[in-house]
Amino acid sequence: MDKIVIEGGQPLNGNVRINGAKNAALLIQCAALLGDTACTLRHLPNLSDVRTMGKLLAYLGCDVSMVDTHTMRIDPRGVRDGELEAPYDTVKTMRASVTVMGPLLARYGRARVSLPGGCAIGARPIDQHLKGLEALGAEIQLENGYVVLQADRLRGGAFVFDKVTVGGTQNVMMAATLAKGTTRLENVAREPEVEELARFLNKMGAKISGAGTSVIEIEGVDNLTGIEHAVIADRIEAGTLAIAAAITRGDVLLEDAPVDHMHATIAKLEEAGVECRVEPDGLRVLGPDEIRPIDVSTRPYPGFPTDMQAQFMVLALCANGQSLITETIFENRFMHVPELARMGGDVKVNGNSAVIRGPSNLMGATVMATDLRASASLVVAGLVAQGVTEVRRVYHLDRGYECIEERLRPLGARIRRLSGARA
Ligand code: UD1
Q1: Does residue 26 line the site of ligand 1, with CB under 6 A?
Q2: CATH number, domain with residue 241
């Protein structure tokens, strides 16, 4: 198994280009199922999750091919006679697989999708996805750990989400594009990845309005056409690299950073004293002499993103004073805390809040990645820690960050990957 080895203490300086957004890419890959012809998706990040989604689409009968490292062509014309099933082994490695449900049901009249079960960061049910699809006329049964959905043709309906869910909003929105009549969805997620998916679907011929607000209306159409599309830049990758620049007291230009999607992250960085300059080419981040403590509470967009919480904890560890971080989206998302404690971090968790006392003199240690964003926080911590940090179970990191060591090394970080037998 690969591991990442970091010798901390080097300030990061220079330019780095932000990759395509993983969470937008995965959903757009699912949406390609809805078309009558092939889609060509550009600016996809080269990540294991994107490849896993490609494999699932191929399993469903799509003709999937890589045009180059960041471009995938998906032709769904072979799906009709296929299994229409997302199997357990795929769903358990990548939860986003459940969002093939809406497109399969809308386009092919049925779907069989493994229930995801819990994952490292919490229970993560899909009740809202199912209730929303039911409101469009889906018949739903549970069979041996699988959800089986059926509908001759979905019909437009009204649905108010009990809880703001990104995946739930996207799944039901995709299904509604081909329903007969108009659908109104309330209390939907407003994340940029929802807006991006709506933009993509509208380019295919869908009629969606309101994406980016809390009410979305979809006028069903009879068919959608394959298109070419370039995916938006990743606000979480940009935020993670911003923290790395800030805590190493560096000066980094995040080229193409989607600053319009990063207001909450930038506001908290500035509160901590980090200088963030919006420049024509992207976001320039300059680490301050003194980092100030922060209070952060995760919220649905446009609030502070849960996917940045672990990385901000490292910023808080470098701050002069006491910070408070509250996690309100997922119930078990502090798994990076014991690992950061092994590096010398002073963090006390009480329920869904963590009190962080800085500044910590972080020391290099061997640490274990437990989930995607937790592993990013450990890499970032390794960049400021004294001595050598070894991050193990790097496969979590590789799900969401494209060769992170190759992004950080040109900026001056002493970081390398030891692969396979050498690790
Ligand atoms: C997406 C992102 C993930 C991010 C999360 C929150 C993708 C591929 N992943 O995940 O990186 O951390 O949004 O911003 O885009 N919930 C229910 N019932 C449901 C659905 C969700 O109770 O039917 C709960 C979840 O357990 C969680 C909360 O709602 O507590 C938010 O989850 P949701 O927004 O659905 O997250 P994902 O779409 O899975």
Answers
A1: yes
A2: 3.65.10.10
